[in-house]
Amino acid sequence: MLQLPVYLDNNATTPLDPRVLETMLPYFTQHFGNASSRHHAYGWAAEAAVDLAREQVAALIGADPKEIIFTSGATEADNLALKGVFEMYADKGNHIITTEIEHKAILDTCRHLEKLGASVTYLKVNHEGMIDLKELESAITAKTILVAVMYANNEIGSINPIREISAVAKRHGVLMMSDITQAAGKIPVNVNKDGIDLAAFSAHKLYGPKGIGALYVRRKSPRVKVTAQMDGGGHERGMRSGTLNVPAIAGFGKACELALQEMEEEGKRLAAMRDKLENALLQLEETYVNGSRTHRLPHVSNISFRYVEGEALLMGFGKEVALSSGSACTSASPEPSYVLKALGLGDDLAHSSLRFGLGRFTTEEEIDYTINAVTATVNRLREISPLWEMFKEGVDMNAIEWSHH
Amino acid sequence: MSYAERVLEYYNNPRNAGTLDKSSQHVGTGLVHVSEYVDVVRFQVEVNPVTHVIRDARFKTFGCGSAIACSSIVTEWIKGKTIEEAFRLDHMEIVEALSLPPSKIHSAILTEDAVRAAINDYRVKNGMEPAEEEYEEPADYYDERD
What we know:
The complex is a heterodimer of chains A (405) and B (146).
Chain A: E1 6-7, H1 18-24, H2 26-29, H3 41-60, E2 68-71, H4 74-88, E3 95-99, H5 104-115, E4 119-123, H6 133-139, E5 144-148, H7 162-171, E6 175-179, E7 198-202, E8 213-217, H8 246-281, E9 287-289, E10 300-305, H9 310-316, E11 321-322, E12 324-325, H10 338-342, H11 347-351, E13 353-357, H12 364-383, H13 386-392
Parallel strand pairs in A: 1-11, 3-4, 3-5, 5-6, 6-7
Antiparallel strand pairs in A: 2-8, 7-8, 9-10, 10-13, 12-13
Helix pairs in contact in A: 1-8, 3-8, 4-5, 8-12
Chain B: H1 5-12, E1 27-35, E2 38-47, E3 54-62, H2 65-78, H3 83-87, H4 91-98, H5 105-125
Helix pairs in contact in B: 1-2, 2-5, 4-5
């Protein structure tokens, strides 16, 4: 029996895996101790859970457990990485290089740092969402302290060549940071092979609980330090004070362990279903995939349905399928997704986009249902779209005579 | 975001979606947009040349669900009205009827514009002066939007 609406917004968040929930439960009521309490069994039980989770989280990205700093999520980890490096390495310089399609947690933090004296370069991306390595190299100056490039994009799922990017950074003695939120647990990420010095991610994107994430901070070659942005009891090697959220950390650890075990098989299964969905929807006329189709997360597809508006589409199957749109029709001059605009999409296609994000619990039956629901709504809305009618009549859209009003 | 029940009703079962013969002497067509690919409304009226009563109205709209609902509800309202009466349609009537949030008021304004453009197209086609807009926008109007 199909449970509606079908959930295909797994890039926004994922449901908690029942095995993760089971791991978490004892730490609410039974082993409720403070992991910093060193002198009684309650504290030891909590500490043991945190130690295990730290190993599980580290193992997912090929790190040492000592290099994991627990935070409230990826946004906090992004903030800690950027602000912490900016403060810690102020003597070396004030220049940060990032890309224009980063998550807002990176972009808005950079804007904040600019007010504090940082100089930030926002690299442009091509139509597939990739930066130009030569542009990156030529943007590096003697004042550059950090290169921050996301591993995979949250809207289009494109995967950056992180190894090549970090090699450029390393050649110039610049730290490499990556927001790996969308990639961790979905595709192999290895901080050593990938040359990453700082990495931010969260549990709720990989079937763990919300409110917990981590910043990976490299300890060896080079030893990286960030200035704490949260002061207090000196938890997490002094980089992030605050009583540890033990149940969430235990859940995060379990989620990482499961992801590491199941990633390969799950990736193949999701890619096959994603491709089925994508190919079926591309049968509709004037339908386009946004971003790279080759360097892409296995569970993501971002598609534009020209001549229909994204938000109207979502309303059309709101009770049937839950997804996201790149449209933002909420004001007189709404701006569509900045990521899609950065790829060079016109407003028409950016406003007509939907993001499909499959997940661990997505079924073939749900994909079939979604194909039918989306196809029917696109066709229905095109029937009442003046732009579709003009397109079908061969009217040149650039030569439309608009009424004065 | 949740939508008012009436928006959903008009969105799911749009009344009077379609096309009238643009070349007919009795048909006025208005094609308006916010920007080229955000909310495009084509509104058409078919008018009795003797009484100037609107006999039929049709729309096609590209835009969010609210924009579609605005266009559709107005096609129902203006049938049977004279072109003078229909021209005085106020977008706030649409806003109230559909319980639109402030962020969607632009959709109602666009529909109002489309109706007036269609009526004026008919007027000009039939040798009349285009009617003038009368309403005033409060100075702080734009601040009220999302």
